[in-house]
Amino acid sequence: MSTGAGREAGIGGGGAHDPGPERQDQQPRHVRRILKLWAVLSVVCVAIAIAINPLIAPSSASSVAGFANLTDLVFTVLAIPVGLFVWLFVGYSVVVFRARVPAGTSAEDLDDGPPLQARPGQQIAWLAITGTLAVFLVGWGMFGFYKQTTDPPANPLVVNVTGQQWLWTYSYPSLGVQSNVLELPVRRPVEFRVTSDDVLHGFVINGLGVAMDANPGMWATAPIITPTKLGNFTTRCVELCGLYHTYMWSRVEVVSASDFAAWVAANGGRLSAAGARAGIS
């Protein structure tokens, strides 16, 4: 009898077999668990982004377009870990720390969770990492802008671009040619001067890295680009400009110097000027 009573007392009264409060070192290491999962997912997602980038990025046919594609990739690679860090913590907290109460429990009967206590080390680390990223991204953009604007190639081929509802017109002042098709010689620097006859348009050639607003009554000069590949591209209007905005596009052809000279002659241009200014022998 005494032995049975002792056992009952030991079980019900918190004797030697009662595990008591869970020790701190036995509790789940939530932060470590999240950080490990974050690191693995970041590596996997960054690898996937790098792998599929050549499949989804627009073709690059100029140094400006190449830098734009590289910028998109760099910004994506940096944004993936930051986004995963935030959303992983949110998702983990929602699943693991969710309060489980009977249905129909009123708000007054719910207990408050433990108060959050900020740690100076965590705050300093967060500000240092995000601040470094911000400074790097600003510096990256300033470096790209500097390279495009401070050392432009000499003697570019000037092309005046005029937008009107709903087509583009191109004129070559040095060659005496006007056309609705944009013809460009390969490896020849080109400077676009853009305007509009009616409403706001947006002049874009993705493959060449050209993007400029066409403002009525104003001339805007785009950074000089040099086509590096032969091929066909498309200009588009990226500003909603009326009923037929979708159809405001035209063909762009990057051709050899000899083909460009033949195109200039066929359109009544000045061959002597074409040879002197466009580098055509």
Strand share of the residues? 15-25%
What is the average of the pLDDT values?
79
SSE string, helix = H, strand = E? HHHHEEEEEEEEEEHH
CATH superfamily name of the largest domain? Cupredoxins -  blue copper proteins
CATH topology of the largest domain: Immunoglobulin-like
Please give the share of residues in helix. 40-55%
pLDDT < 50 stretches:
1-27
Q: What would you call the quaternary organization?
A: single chain
Structural class: alpha+beta
Instruction: Write down the CATH class of the largest domain.
Output: Mainly Beta
The best one-word shape is elongated
Counted by DSSP, the helix tally is 6
Largest sheet: 5 strands, mixed
Please tell me how large the radius of gyration is.
Answer: 32 Å
The N- and C-terminal alpha carbons lie at a distance of 117 Å
In short:
This protein has 281 residues and is of the alpha+beta class. Helices cover 42% and strands 19% of the residues.
